[in-house]
Fold these 2 entries.
Entry 1:
Amino acid sequence: MASMQSLDIKNRSATSLPSPSVRSHTELAKLIDVSKCIGCKACQVACMEWNDLRGPVGENTGVYDNPQDLNEHTWTLMRFSEVEPDDFSFEWLIRKDGCMHCDDPGCLKACPAPGAIVQYANGIVDFISEKCIGCGYCIAGCPFDIPRLSRADNRAYKCTLCSDRVAVGLEPACVTTCPTGCITFGTKEDMKQQAVLRIADLNSRGYDNAGLYDPPGVGGTHVMYVLQHADRPGLYHGLPEDPRISPMVGFWQGITKPLAIGALALLAMASFLHFIKHGPNVAEDDDDAPSRDKTRDRKEESSHVE
Amino acid sequence: MSNKDDIRRYKDGERLHHWIVAITFILLAMSGLALFHPSLYWLTNLFGGGQWTRILHPFIGLVMFVSVMVLMVRFWRHNLVNRDDLRWIRYLPDALHKREGRLPPVGRYNAGQKIIYWSTVIGMFLLLFSGLIMWQPYFAPVFPIGLVRFAILVHAFSAILLMMVIILHIYAAIWVKGSLQAMVKGTVSRTWAKKHHPLWYREVTQEERK
C-alpha cells in the first residue's frame, strides 16, 4: 500500500484517535434508479468478473433471484419483488442489493479489529480482509444485512464500491456495464441533483411518491436509490424504512466500553489502596502475626465464638 | 506457616477444578478484553493474533463452564443463604476497617464468598448462552440478528461484572492471610478457621472428637 493512501482514510475500526485529516476530499456516490432497471443482472456479472468471484452453481427455486441471497461470492444481487402497491396496479420491482456505504457505518463501529474496516474520505466503506478476524460483529452492526462470512477463510466480505477502480479514476464495474443507465456514479452532490431530475420525471408519469433513498439515520449513504414508491421502501424486498445502527450495538460500542474498563481499573485500585491503608488481615495466633492488635482482637473474637 | 495441626478445607479434585477455572478465567479475560476495547487489542498477540484469539476464546470458555459446573455441584450446599448473611453484609464495612467484632459467626462461607459463588454460577450461564448465540461460524448464523446483537451486549455486561467479582475474590484472598493456603495445599490453620469461620471450625472439631 502506498503511504499516501493513509491520508485518504477517514475512519478506521477499533481506533480511538482520529485519522490523518489534513486533506479535503469530495464525497462520491452511486445512484441506482430502480425505475430504469430491467433486471438483466449485467451488474452482477460485471461485479463477479472484475472481482474474480465465482460461487458454486446454485439451484433454481422458481424465482428470478439468483443466487437466493448475498454471499461471500455475491457482493451485489438483483432482488425481484412482485407487489401490488395499490388496489388497481401490479408492479415488478427490481432492486440491486449490496452495501450502501453508510456515512455512519455500523459494521465499522462494531468491528473489534483495528483497521479491518476503513472508511475512505470519499465515503467508500471497505473491508481490509487480511486484518479481519472473522468474529461476525460487522454482521451484527449492519442495518442492511449485507456482510457475509466466508466458511472457507472465516473473513467477512461485501461490495467494495470498486475502491480499487475508483482510486485510479474509474467508475465501479457495475456502473460501467449497466445497459440502461440505471446506475450512475459521481460526486454525491451531482448524484443528488440527477436524482431530482429523475424524480420530477417519475412524478410526471404518475408516481407521486417517487423520491430519493438516502437514509439520514445512518448519516446518508454513498449508494442511493431512486424509488418509485419512496414512501414505502419496504416494497423493494424489505429495504428498511428508517435504517439506523441498532441501539444495542450503539450502547455496547459507545458508553459501555470506557465505563467498563474504568470500573475494572477503579476496583483494582481501590483494593490496592485498602491494602496499603489497613494491611493484611492476619489470624492473630499465627507466629508471624503482629503483636499489637492481639489483645483487642481476642476480646472481640471471644464475643462471637461459642 | 502450616503444620500437622492444620485442618483440611479443600480436596485435591476441588483444588484442581478451582485452578482450571482460575487459569481459563485469566485466558478468557485477556482474550475477551482484547476484542472488547481497542486499547487492549495488543493482548491478541498472546494468543497468536486476532484470528486465533477469536477461534480460541469460545473453546476455552467451554472448559471454564464445565469446571465451574463441577465446583457448583460440589459447593452449592455450603452456599445457601441464611439470615446471618444479611447481618454479615451490614457489618462488612466495619470488618474492612478491621473492626470484625460485630460480624456474626460465619460457617464454611461468609456472605461475601456466597455472593462470589452465586454471581460466578449465574454469570457462567449467561456467558455460555450469550456466547453460543454469537459464536461464529458455528451457531450465530442460525439465530435472528436481533438476538445476536442482544447476546453480544449480554456477553459484554456479564463478563465485566464477573471480572469485577473476581477482582474482589482475588483481593480477598490476598488480604485475608492464610486463605491462599486453602487453595494451594488444601489446608488452613486452626487460628485462621477460628477467626474467619468459627461455626465451620466447631463442626470440624466436633467431628474430630467423634
Entry 2:
Amino acid sequence: MKHDRPIYFDHAATSWPKPPEVLDGMRRFLEEIGANPGRSGHSMSLDAARMVFETREAVAELFGLDDSAQVVFTANATHAFNIALQGMLQQGSHVITTAMEHNSVIRPLRELESRGVIELDIIPCTNTGTVCLDTLDARFRPNTGLVAVQHGSNVTGCVQPIEKIGALCSRRRIPFLVDAAQTAGCLPIDMKAGHIDLLAFTGHKALLGPTGIGGLCIAGSRLPEPLYFGGTGSASEQEKHPLFMPDRLEAGTPNTVGIAGLQAALEHLRRISLAATVEKEQALRSRLVDGLHAIDGVRVYSGELPVVSFTIDGLTPDDIGYVLDRDYGIMSRVGLHCSPLAHRTLGTAPAGTVRFSMGYSNTMDQVDRAVQAVAEIAERSP
Amino acid sequence: MKQILVFESTHAVLKAEKWLKANSVPYEILPTPRHISSDCGMAIRLEQTEGVSIPDLLLQSGIKAAMHPQENCCEF
C-alpha cells in the first residue's frame, strides 16, 4: 500500500533527507559570511577561509590524514578521480583496477588508455564481487604506476579488503587510490592503516552533506600534477599556478556553501557517532536481506554495506522499480547503476538489478513494508 | 616590538592561527603589507617576545613562516 510519505531507498545515489543542521549550516554561511575565502583581507573573507580550513581539518581527522593541506575540495568523487588519475599517471604507466569499479573510475582510465597513455589491467573478482589478493599480486609489473579499487560496491555493498590490498601496494611502493564514494560516512576509514595514498570521497552520500562537494585526500609526498589552473588567492604576482598544497590542485572560487554544508554534516556525524550509524544501518541491511531471501523467485546480491540488489524471476528491474514507486511509494534505483563491469561480474548484465540502498533516516518499519511490497510483486510474476 | 609573519598560503595562515590560539599567543590577522614579498594576501601580526622565535616554533609544527619587523610595515 502506498503511504503519504515516500520510502527513500536510494541513499547510494544521494542521501535524503539531509539533517536539519546541514541546511542550517548552509543558510548561516550565506546569510552571515558569504564572502570569498582567502581572496580579500577583510574579516568576512577571513571567516569564510576559516570555515574552509576547519572543514579541511575535519575531513583530515575523519580519514586519519596528518596534514589537512593534503585535503583538496572537488565537486564530487568523479572530479577527484580525474585529478588523481590524470595527474598521477605518466606515459607508459600500467594501472591495475577491478571488475567491480564504477564508471567514474573506469571511464577516465579507458580515456587514458585510448589516448595511449596507460596500459589498463582489469582484474576479475569472485561472483560476489570480491577482489582475489593472489590475482592482484600476480598482476604487478615493473611499470605499474597505480592500483585503483572501489572500497564498497554501489551495486551489492560488498567491501574490499582495503588494508590487505594497500599492504601489497605499499610493499612495492605503488600508489593506491581508493574510491570511498559509498563508504565515507558508512564505515571507518583510516588512510594510514589502509596504506591509502589517494582517497576520493563525495559529501552527498553517507556523509549526508549537499551535492556538489567532495574531495581528494592525499597521503605521502607524491602529488598529482594539477588538472586545471587559475586563481587561488595566493602567489597573485605570479602568472604560473602555485605548486604548494592545497592551492596546487584547487583553482577558482570554491563551493563555499557546499563546504559549509559538509562541515555541518561532519559535525552531525561526530554528534551521532559513526559507530551508531554503522550499527543502525547494519540492522536495516540484515532485516532487508533476510526478508528478501525468504521470498520465492527473488535473487539477492548483498555484502556489508546497506546497499542491496535483487531481481525477481520473470520480471525486469525497470518494471519492478516502476511498480515499487507507483504502487508503494518506494524509491529504488534500477538497471546498471553506472557499473556495467560490476553487473557482468555478478552475472546480472545487461538488465541489471533493483537496488535498495538505505541510510540513517530509514526505519525497520520501512524495511518491512518494502519486503512486503517485493513479495506482492513477486507473486504477480508470470 | 611587533613582527609580521607571512606565509605561502591562506591554509598556512589559518594553521598558524590555530597554533597561536592553542598556545594563547595574542595575534592579529591583516592584509599582507604591500612591500613584503609574500605568496599569500593575509599575514599575522604579533608582539615579539625576547628569546622566543615564533617562526621556529611554528616550523616545529610543520608551518613555514617568514618574519618581518613591524617598523618596515604598516603603521596602524
